[in-house]
Amino acid sequence: MPERNFSYHRFIYTLLGVGFLVFSGFVYTQAVPENNHVISPKAVAGKMLWQQHNCSSCHQLYGLGGYLGPDLTNTLSTKGKGKNYAAAIMKNGTQVMPNFHLNDTEIEALLAFLEQADKSGNNRVHSYEIGLDGTITSEGETRK
Ligand code: HEC
């Protein structure tokens, strides 16, 4: 009886060992997926300016930030707004928003940063429905 038990264990361990090797081989030979989250140097410069001037004290991105100004996540793709509109406001400020005296290169960088934000998310965070299991469903999507 003990003899049999021993070979049974050996069988299980061999199976686990082989399974581990096959799985590891599989994982390490998979092509690495393209990283779509890498942002351009220009957008990185824009992010630095965003932080330096503390834009988020008044503005939100993805619904997070200060509430004096509007959420800027989707400003560039919003009908009637877009790049020229955003650039004009950044260049001159408004009665409420200060003029940061940004030069054209800085404005370009901030636009690249905002474009990145626009591509990667949306600001309609309040229209998400939180399910009982903690997952969220955005409008237009159906719960699986
Ligand atoms: C003191 C608060 C404040 C700060 C700081 C601020 N903004 Fe604003 N911003 C506003 C307000 C308020 C508006 C809306 C226009 C208005 O009411 O004058 C606005 C509007 C904008 C708009 C147009 C958005 C839209 O959808 O109409 C852009 C783009 C913008 N700001 C970019 C920036 C950037 C970039 C920075 C940082 C360099 C910044 N803002 C810092 C207050 C601020």
From TrEMBL:
Gene3D superfamilies: Cytochrome c-like domain. It comes from the Bacteria. The chain crosses the membrane at residues 12-31. Keywords: Heme, Iron, Membrane, Metal-binding, Transmembrane, Transmembrane helix. SUPFAM superfamilies: Cytochrome c. Residues 41-118 form the Cytochrome c domain. This is C-type cytochrome. It comes from Adhaeribacter terrigena.
